[in-house]
């Protein structure tokens, strides 16, 4: 079996890639453990200039190869084109994207630098798997250096309709660079169709045939075990005791404008206003660690959330009850797993998300004998699979309010039925399955579309059953 070379903007600390870690490190854990591999990318450190030679260290079967980013490249590649332009456009937010030609120059320069540092480390029969929007150009840069290895690319975030993507300066250059890629993975068929249409429009119909949908999953059994183990942990008991018998709704997100946090807070407030019988019977815990706190837009979002939470708590709290608890610092993943297990409602309402693994983690965390209810945005990729969720429009606070009311009143047999449907999907499409499906397409054992999730169909919003008479 050839060596697998994973390329990502940021290389994780291998000591943190165990069962308590999250994100790409967990998703790729099995692939890295079961074959000789290399993990290449940014170290997370900055320096006067971007590194030209990677620092190498071995951990298990994986060689970790990292370079530092130069201060100028960090500003223009990372903060600039990647996060101020690409991130909002890919999430359908063209109106708030910021464009600067110096940023795109930094993006090109850094993709080239990554390729130049990786190329000398490659073996002829390596399989290269590049991840996410920071590195759209890297495969083309590797080809320009004479690299002939199989190269795959996976986009973890959404891809918008062509009319939106074309608003991005240099959009055509990014699409043309995909000619260098052998297999392109997306989270959903909708995202795949959008990318295919964009490629066809620039005369890359042959490249469009290399695009397929591969829904990413989690270590379902591992997370379920972690949640069960942490259910009686000290910090989880403290939370349970503080609720004094009330139900818990939980939201877990990075503080980002794509996550629909102001709308979610408004929806919870609307539920308390429209269905006052729930006042004093439910507490909403929103965990939203601050990200990019040096960016004005993110500071404004935090102020908006502070004001929204304060307004609802000020209007509706009682001496012994506050409707919303709001945490903007990081909480350890094992603790969050325990919190999810005890939560009657999981509230996952992004305005747009490639997949959203928190939705799948909430399902995995539940007690099979008494599961909670997942309230899920129709615009999360996970909604394609998790048809046992209450699917909502995250832009409509009243829709969120009605779903919360239904979840609070939902009988045990319906909760169990919905959870069983979701759990079957979460168990079937794990992180390991995702890796196998994509790598089988990349390494030539299956067609790209056939290796993906061709069988997945969009979830329909299933209304809760009529409430039983008292």
Polypeptide structure, described:
It is a single chain. The chain contains 19 helices and 14 strands. It is α/β, with parallel strands linked by helices. The chain folds into two domains: 4-217 and 430-451, 3-Layer(aba) Sandwich (Rossmann fold); 222-428, 3-Layer(aba) Sandwich (Rossmann fold), CATH 3.40.50.2000. It has an eight-stranded mixed beta sheet, with helices on both faces. It has a six-stranded parallel beta sheet with strand order 11-10-9-12-13-14, sandwiched between helices. α12 runs parallel beside α13. It is globular.
Distance between the termini: 63 Å
Number of domains: 2
Low-confidence region ranges: 454-462
Highest-level CATH class of the largest domain: Alpha Beta
| Shape label | globular
Work out the number of β strands. 14
CATH topology name of the largest domain: Rossmann fold
Strand content: 15-25%
Q: What's the main sheet like? A: 8 strands, mixed
């Amino acid at each position: 079996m050839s060596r697998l070379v994973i390329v990502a903007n940021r290389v994780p600390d291998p000591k943190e890639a165990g069962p308590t870690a999250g994100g790409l490190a967990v998703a790729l854990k099995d692939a890295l453990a079961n074959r000789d591999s290399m993990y290449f990318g940014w170290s997370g450190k900055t320096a006067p200039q971007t590194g030209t030679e990677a620092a190498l260290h071995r951990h298990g079967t994986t060689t970790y190869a990292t370079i530092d980013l130069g201060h100028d490249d960090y500003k223009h590649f990372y903060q600039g084109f990647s996060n101020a332009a690409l991130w909002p456009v890919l999430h359908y937010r063209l109106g708030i994207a910021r464009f600067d030609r110096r940023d795109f120059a930094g993006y090109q320069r850094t993709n080239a630098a990554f390729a130049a540092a990786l190329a000398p480390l490659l073996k002829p029969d390596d399989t290269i798997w590049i991840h996410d929007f920071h590195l759209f150009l890297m495969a083309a840069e590797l080809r320009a250096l004479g690299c002939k290895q199989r190269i795959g690319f996976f986009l973890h975030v959404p891809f918008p309709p062509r009319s939106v993507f074309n608003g991005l300066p240099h959009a055509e250059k990014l699409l043309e660079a995909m000619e260098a890629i052998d297999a392109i993975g997306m989270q959903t068929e909708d995202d795949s169709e959008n990318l295919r249409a964009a490629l066809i429009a620039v005369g890359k119909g042959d490249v469009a045939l290399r695009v397929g949908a591969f829904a990413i999953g989690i270590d379902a059994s591992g997370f379920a075990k972690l949640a069960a183990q942490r259910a009686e942990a000290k910090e989880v008991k403290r939370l349970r005791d503080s609720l004094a018998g009330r139900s818990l709704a939980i939201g877990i997100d990075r503080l980002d404008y794509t996550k629909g946090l102001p709308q979610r807070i408004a929806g919870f407030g609307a539920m308390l206003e429209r269905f006052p019988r729930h006042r004093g019977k439910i507490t909403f815990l929103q965990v939203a660690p601050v990200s990019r706190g040096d960016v004005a837009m993110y500071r404004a979002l935090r102020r908006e959330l502070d004001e929204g939470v304060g307004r609802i708590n000020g209007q509706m709290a009682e001496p012994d009850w506050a409707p919303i608890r709001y945490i903007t610092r990081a909480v350890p993943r094992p603790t969050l797993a325990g919190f999810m297990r005890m939560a009657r409602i999981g509230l996952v309402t992004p305005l747009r998300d490639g997949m959203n693994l928190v939705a799948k983690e909430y399902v995995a965390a539940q007690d099979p004998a008494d599961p909670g209810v997942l309230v899920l945005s129709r615009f999360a990729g996970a909604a394609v699979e998790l048809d046992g969720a209450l699917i909502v429009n995250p832009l409509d606070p009243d829709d969120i309010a009605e779903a919360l009311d239904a979840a609070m009143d939902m009988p045990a047999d319906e909760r169990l039925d919905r959870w069983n449907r979701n759990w079957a999907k979460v168990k079937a499409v794990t992180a390991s399955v995702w890796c196998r499906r994509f790598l089988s397409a990349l390494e030539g054992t299956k067609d790209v579309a056939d290796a993906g999730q061709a069988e997945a169909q969009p979830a329909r919003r299933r209304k809760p059953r009529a409430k039983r008479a008292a």
